[in-house]
Design brief:
heterodimer; A: alpha/beta; Rossmann fold; 2 domains; B: mainly beta; Porin; 6 helices
Chain lengths: ~400, ~475
């Protein structure tokens, strides 16, 4: 009898093990979906003397609730893009959905305004000539039209603690410039591959034998001549084209056609009515900081000071420190626009001023070795954006 | 007789349709029959004299009880877990979309069947068994197209295609139907042979990738989500082959038995269906920026380009030899020790040849599965304690993994050194009718496959952290005529 009890006990124990030990497959985290809204504002600033509808892409976080207040991240697009580009290429919405759903960043509204213009990009700058708007006041557009519109339309934390500004390339420049100049409005700044230290434009470029000015001259056969150079503006002459866009933002000119000194690289682009510029016409144009042979002129000081984020950093360091602004800076280690040294220089400035920052010269990503996937201007932008969103998210107030 | 044939046929169908399981080493199972399993295989080829000696050591059939019929059912509950660290978007990559992924919950029921017929003519023992020497299977949901893979201006009119949920799957099933014979050649010395057909059924599904930069170098500058395009690949085939077992059983002195045995299998010539489906990304913006370029339009169309064909492959099953000792310590206690050496290294490279299979109109003619498995040594020990008319059995075995890190993937979740703990018993529940039971727990320490500097999407392994264990229960009935 004892034997049977013992054996039956073993059998019972064995059968007990057959009780289902079911487990759940671990799925990817539940991703809550936010909403994309194409919003617009009638701008009186981006088109001098007129007004126009300017669009912006607004990401509302999952379960957006108007009884709550949300921080806002202004995400600035790059040269050649518009309010849709980052979403259309990098799927910012899914990145934000993922980060918010996993708690890596707080619930936030993300706004990408359109800062494009006829030259490919406004550089988020007030284009002024003798205090007269020329190619649009895009800095003011962001500060005085976009942000008030967002704060009045959506349920935002309408203060510095509730705002961050992030951008890539031209957008990185814009984030740096606007963030530094308006440190009372933004708590954190993210700069991806931004031209933020203009002195570095004059540095020799390894394996080239010249600096960026020499590259621009080389693109144009050695010298810049009017009107030939205007025919070349476009994607086949990227450095020249971006130079003209920057000049339109930083050192534009509004004057009679005859008053443009073309030998000293003052180029009329169009009449104020939009026609081809010619004798006797009031024209808008650009002034380059060097002449047709690449010799720098006095305008270079304007570029290196009031439009140079590195210079602005020095000027506004105390305000930035007092306002507790934090910076995220990165750039690809092999940036083809030669901006790697800009990020390094800018990070050194942040260090010198004792500001809070995180910086990275991006070499590769796990599984994507740099020799196969060189860390260029926008390589791995999804990952870098993820990093900067997490970073700025740490400093944003939530309710 | 007719009843037996029907039973046999139905059992065969059940076995052939059986899902897969994870147990023992590589895709080799722990053993056959509740008695041998209960002692962890420890000295089983010197110890076992029931129907399952057709597997353990056919020479023992010379001493088996004649005229028995046995049926068994094993319930296997394998558990395996994988934390990818591939650096490939879609598995983990910079986004770490998943932390751990567990196999699809599966319980496997494996029937077995055996008969002993006693002496026939000059033979001192004969028998027949239907059993499963090899089996394996996993089913993982590992891959999803990464963030931004599908981007359309008009999400309402473009629905991203559904990538298969279970995208890494394996199923290897080998069923043996063997006849065994034994002859006692002298007092205490017998030899035996078992042989018969093996029915193999195999299925593999995995994700492969194509690098668009190999087609257009400009693609290397695309956003990271477009660096690799996934291909869902699938093969499924069946084959019939032949296997045999042999053995010697010797009792040099009273109470001590020595067994030496082995198994050999002819290569399995698999043929069956093959399929591949390339999931192209969708990006309306890139298409728009490229103007009317038809190649870009196709590349970012979001289409699924499917192809179906056939394949042939030769699959070698590992053979083994083993040595066992059984010693009767007392009339109530029997102990056994065993060592088994398995030649897993026959599973080195599998060449598959395809017909009518293509990707982007490029024919796929062959594929190579690199395994480079290592031979393994299994050490086992077991004991049987007699309790009146019943027995209690205990056993353990230890065996390493044949799979090197360089080819380790979730498809065969043999994570490494295995320690199997077994307990079992039998009880006569009616005249001539005995109930057998066995429980096995296989412990495997966690395994980490490192991603070395040379790792790429073409590497034959999958870096990451692996964990696995197995619970199995066998119930059997034996009837003596």
């Amino acid at each position: 009898m004892k034997t049977k009890i013992l054996v039956l006990s073993v059998l019972a124990a064995i059968l007990a093990f057959t009780a289902c030990q079911k487990w759940e497959e671990v799925e990817k985290p539940e991703i809550l979906e936010g909403t994309l809204v194409i919003d617009s504002v009638v701008s009186h600033l981006t088109m001098p003397g007129s007004e126009e509808v300017r669009y912006m892409l607004v990401y509302l976080p999952p379960n957006y609730d108007t009884t709550k207040r949300y921080p806002v991240i202004y995400l600035l697009h790059g040269y050649g893009g518009n309010h849709m580009t980052l979403q259309a290429v990098e799927d910012v919405k899914s990145i934000a959905d993922y980060l918010i759903s996993t708690g890596a960043m707080p619930e936030a509204i993300i706004v990408t305004p359109d800062a494009s213009n006829d030259l490919g990009g406004s550089f988020y700058t007030n284009s002024m000539y003798n205090s007269i708007p020329v190619f649009g006041l895009f800095e003011n557009y962001i500060i005085y039209e976009v942000i008030p519109h967002i704060d009045s339309t959506y349920s935002t934390i309408a203060s510095q603690e509730g705002r961050a500004i992030v951008g890539i390339s031209m957008g990185g420049y814009g984030a740096a410039k606007l963030g530094i100049k308006h440190s009372d409005m933004f708590k954190a700044i993210g700069i991806h591959s931004g031209p933020v230290s203009f002195e570095r434009f004059l540095d020799p470029i390894p394996d080239f034998g010249g600096n960026l000015i020499d590259i621009i001259l080389a693109e144009n056969g050695g010298e810049l001549h009017y009107p030939d150079v205007l025919q070349r503006l476009g994607p086949d002459y990227p450095f020249t084209t971006m130079l003209f866009a920057q000049a339109a933002a930083f050192t534009p000119k509004l004057d009679m056609f005859e008053n443009f000194d073309t030998l000293n690289c003052e180029f009329p682009l169009a009449s104020v009515t939009g026609d081809t510029c010619g004798p006797g016409m009031l024209c808008v144009g650009v002034r380059l900081p060097f002449d047709y042979q690449g010799n720098t002129n006095d305008l270079l000081d304007v570029w290196l000071t009031e439009h140079n984020p590195r210079w602005l950093l020095d000027q506004y360091a105390d305000q930035l420190s007092a306002n507790g602004v934090a910076f995220y800076v990165d750039c690809g280690a092999q940036d083809e626009l030669f901006l790697t040294s800009h990020a390094q220089d800018f990070a050194e400035g942040l260090e010198q001023h004792g500001l809070t920052y995180e910086s990275e010269i991006f070499a590769d990503a796990p599984g994507y070795p740099a020799d196969e996937f060189p860390p260029l201007h926008s390589t791995h932008f999804q990952l870098r954006l993820k990093n900067s969103l997490i970073f700025v998210g740490q400093y944003l107030a939530t309710q | 007789m007719r009843c037996s044939s029907n039973l046999l046929g139905r059992t065969m169908i059940v076995l052939l349709l059986m899902p897969s399981l994870v147990l023992a080493s590589g895709f080799k199972l722990s053993g056959v029959g509740p008695v041998g399993l209960s002692i962890g295989g420890g000295g089983a080829n010197a110890f076992i004299t029931d129907w399952s000696s057709i597997y353990w050591n056919p020479a023992a059939l010379a001493y088996s009880r004649p005229h028995t019929a046995n049926i068994g059912l094993t319930n296997v509950l394998p558990f395996s877990e994988y934390q990818p660290q591939t650096g490939i978007l879609g598995y983990d990559g910079p986004y770490s979309m998943r932390e751990k992924v567990r196999t699809k919950y599966q319980e496997f029921l494996i029937p077995s069947l055996g008969f002993t017929f006693g002496s026939v003519g000059p033979l001192d023992g004969t028998g027949f068994a239907l059993f499963v020497p090899f089996g394996l299977g996993t089913s993982y949901d590992l891959y999803d197209p990464p963030i931004g893979y599908y981007l359309s201006y008009d999400p309402d009119s473009f629905a991203p295609p559904q990538f298969p949920k279970y995208d890494w799957e394996s199923s290897i099933q080998v069923v043996a139907a063997w006849v065994g014979v034994a002859k006692e050649v002298s007092n205490g010395l017998s030899i035996g042979l078992a042989a018969g057909p093996t029915f193999a059924s195999m299925k593999f599904r995995k994700v492969k990738f194509i690098d668009p930069a190999l087609i257009d170098t400009q693609a290397a500058r695309l956003p990271i989500q477009y660096r690799l395009f996934p291909i869902d690949t699938y093969i499924e085939g069946k084959s019939t082959s032949f296997g045999l077992g042999f053995g010697i059983r010797y009792e040099p002195v009273e109470k001590l038995t020595i067994g030496f045995s082995g198994h050999y299998y002819l290569p399995v010539e698999l043929n069956g269906d093959a399929a591949a489906a390339l999931y192209l990304p969708r990006n309306d913006t890139l298409v728009s920026m490229a103007g009317d370029d038809p190649n870009v339009a196709l590349m970012f169309s979001g289409q699924v380009m499917e192809s179906r064909g056939t394949f042939d492959a030769t699959f070698k099953l590992p053979y083994d030899i083993s040595l066992g000792l059984a010693y009767e310590v007392s009339p109530k206690l029997l102990i056994g020790l065993g060592a088994e050496y398995t030649f897993h290294s026959v599973f080195d490279i599998v060449e598959a040849e395809f017909e009518d299979l293509s990707i982007m109109e490029q024919p796929i003619e062959r594929d190579t599965i690199k395994a480079y498995w290592k031979n393994t040594l299994k050490l086992s020990a077991g004991a049987q304690w007699k309790l009146g008319g019943a027995h209690l059995r205990f056993g353990v075995y230890y065996e390493g993994s044949p799979i090197p890190d360089s080819t380790f993937t979730p498809l065969i979740p043999d994570t490494g050194d295995k320690l199997s703990f077994n307990i079992g018993s039998d009880l006569q529940i009616a005249r001539n009718l005995t109930l057998f039971a066995h429980y096995e727990y296989i412990y495997m320490p966690d395994k980490e496959v490192a991603r070395d500097a040379d790792y790429s999407y073409l590497s034959p392994n999958m870096p990451g952290k692996y964990a696995a264990n197995v619970n199995a229960v066998t119930l059997g009935l034996g009837y003596a005529f």
